[in-house]
Amino acid sequence: MVAMVKPREMLRILVLSVIATGEAHGYEVRNRISQLTEEQVKLSPGILYPLLLILRREGLIEVVKEYKEGRRKKVYRLTLKGREYLTPRLPIVVRTLRRVADFLERVHELLEEGESAEAAYREILLHEREVLLDLKKRIERRIEAIDQLVSGEE
Questions:
Q1: 78 beta partners
Q2: Terminal CA-to-CA distance of the chain, rounded, Å?
Q3: What is the pLDDT of residues 96-132, one digit of tens each?
Q4: Distance between CA atoms of 110 and 144, rounded to whole angstroms?
Q5: What are the sequence ranges of the domains in the chain?
C-alpha cells in the first residue's frame, strides 16, 4: 500500500529527513532547515520543540546524548521506526513538491506574459489534460501488448 502524505505531515517529514542525515540537536535542525530553504523557512522554537517531543514520543526519533554547555541540549537520532515511517513517504513528497513547483513556475510565467490568473490556471489544466490523455493511450497500448502476450497471440 502506498503511503499518503497529508499537508501537515510535510514539516514532520522535513524534520525527520534532516535528522536522518545526521544526529542533531534542535538548534541544528532549525539551522539546517533554514539553510536548506535559503532562509525562507525559519522554524520558531514554539513549533520545532513540540514537534521533536511528538516525534520522540511516537518513537520516530530518540535522544542519544544530553549534555550541558551553559544549558541542556538533546541530540536526536532517527530510529528504525522513524526510517520505516520516512522511507515510503519521501518519494511521494518529492513528486508532490515537484508538481507544485512546476505549477507555480508555469503560473508565474503566464502572469509575467500578462495572462490573468484564471487564464493561466485554465492553460495549465488543458496542458495537464493533454499529458494525461497521452499517458492513457500509452497505458492502453501496453495493456493490449500484455493481453496479446498472455493469450499467446503475436
A1: 61
A2: 34
A3: 888 888 888 888 888 888 877 787 778 878 888 988 8
A4: 39
A5: 9-84, 90-151
Please check whether residue 102 is in contact with residue 95, taking contact to mean a CB–CB distance below 8 angstroms: no
In DSSP notation, the chain reads ------TTHHHHHHHHHHHHTS-EEHHHHHHHHHHHTTTS----HHHHHHHHHHHHHTTSEEEEEEEESSSEEEEEEE-HHHHHHHHHHHHHHHHHHHHHHHHHHHHHHHHHTT--HHHHHHHHHHHHHHHHHHHHHHHHHHHHHHHHHHHT--
Q: How confident is the model at residue 69 (pLDDT cuts 50, 70, 90)?
A: low
CATH code reported for the domain at 9-84: 1.10.10.10
What predicted TM-score, i.e. pTM, was given to this entire model?
0.69
> In angstroms, how far apart are the furthest CA atoms of the chain?
77
